[in-house]
Amino acid sequence: MEVAVYQLHNFNISFFSSLLGGDVVSVKLDNSASGASVVALDNKIEQAMDLVKNHLMYAVREEVEILKEQIRELVEKNSQLERENTLLKTLASPEQLEKFQSRLSPEEPAPETSQSPEAPDGSAV
């Protein structure tokens, strides 16, 4: 049982040490290891885990703040574009709106009659 505990503790220390960028800590336990050294080892493992957790939480909070700012910017841009779209719709003539709608949905036939194209002065081309 103590060998399994030693292997688990050694793995945890090596793992957390590599995460934190430090050198791998070598811990030697023999069959006569005192309970105090095991407790100290457990405390060090717990401290390393807390440190990793704190670093991860900080990184996540930072990323959340960046994403919140991007969302605010996108909402603002969307509102601006919606206002611009509304303004353009009010300024556009019915013919322009109809032409625009026909370009948006080409699969639907436009409700126009087939006539020959006209020149700018109104005569047939």
From TrEMBL:
Primary localization class, coarse: cytoplasm
Subcellular location: Cytoplasm; Nucleus
Any GO CC annotation of this UniProt entry: nucleus
UniProt keyword annotations, A-Z: Coiled coil, Cytoplasm, Nucleus, Phosphoprotein
Coiled coil: 57-91
InterPro entries attached to this UniProt entry: TSC22/Bun, TSC22/BUN_CS
Any one GO BP annotation for this protein: negative regulation of activation-induced cell death of T cells
Region (Disordered): 92-125
SUPFAM superfamilies: Delta-sleep-inducing peptide immunoreactive peptide
PROSITE patterns the record matches: TSC22
Family per similarity comment: Belongs to the TSC-22/Dip/Bun family.
PANTHER family: TSC22, TSC22 DOMAIN FAMILY PROTEIN 3
Protein name: TSC22 domain family protein 3
The species this protein was found in: Myotis brandtii
